[in-house]
Amino acid sequence: VQEFMTFTSALIVERTSVGTRASVKEQEYLCHVYVRNDNLSAVVISDTEYPQRVCFTLLDKVLEEFSRQVDSIDWPSGNPDTVSYKSLDIHLSKYQNPREADAMTKVQAELDETKIILHNTMESLLERGEKLDDLVAKSEVLGNQSKAFYKTARKQNSCCEIM
């Protein structure tokens, strides 16, 4: 898996223009790449469910912090054994849950949940409305029947009084 990720990342960085961001689908994964104007680049490989905007936010933060902590002379030849960049693990653990890492994603998720709740509430209101309509119809039938019963009873009583 690591070889696949390394090869794919290198290939995508190589084919991405300087100063651009791109997302490439590779099998069931999305590879998000950012190549800065200074040629420093990074790749995030995620599943299709993970929000693209959050990936690029992570890439921005990591590249910005990396460029401040690591001398640019070490960028081309650097690897985990020679370059000390400890913050990556912190960022990766923070971004495991995109809702917690990104305020916009959190707000969007809350809006989605609210939409679902409202939809369910509207459905139950409509069901109640249908039940209320049934009750209204039944009460109208009962009202008509009671009027008919009252008229019939009144006729019978008036018949009995004459005799």
Q: What oligomeric state do the depicted chains represent?
A: single chain
Estimated helix fraction: 55-70%
The count of β-strands is: 3
Shape: rod-shaped
Instruction: Quickly give the structural class.
Output: alpha+beta
Low-confidence stretches: none
Q: What percent strand?
A: 5-15%
Trace the largest sheet across and list its strands: 1-2-3
Q: Can you give the mean pLDDT?
A: 81
**Radius of gyration from the alpha-carbon trace, in angstroms:** 34 Å
Largest sheet: 3 strands, antiparallel
DSSP helical segment count:
5
Secondary-structure element string: HEEEHHHH
Measure the end-to-end span. Answer: 105 Å
Secondary structure layout plus pairing:
Elements: H1 2-14, E1 20-26, E2 29-35, E3 41-47, H2 52-69, H3 87-94, H4 98-101, H5 103-162
Antiparallel strand pairs: 1-2, 2-3
Helix pairs in contact: 2-3
What does this structure look like?
With 163 residues, the chain is of the alpha+beta class. It contains five helices and three strands; from the N terminus they run H-E-E-E-H-H-H-H. It has helices at residues 2-14, 52-69, 87-94, 98-101, 103-162; strands at 20-26, 29-35, 41-47. A three-stranded antiparallel beta sheet has the order 1-2-3, with helices on both faces. A hairpin with a 5-residue loop joins strand 2 and strand 3. Helix 2 (52-69) packs antiparallel against helix 3. The protein is rod-shaped and about 115 Å long. The termini are far apart. InterPro entries: Longin-like_dom_sf, Longin_dom, R-SNARE_YKT6, V_SNARE_CC. Residues 103-163 form the V-SNARE coiled-coil homology domain. Keywords: Coiled coil, Lipoprotein, Membrane, Methylation, Palmitate, Prenylation, Protein transport, Transport. Its main location: membrane. It holds the Pfam family Longin.
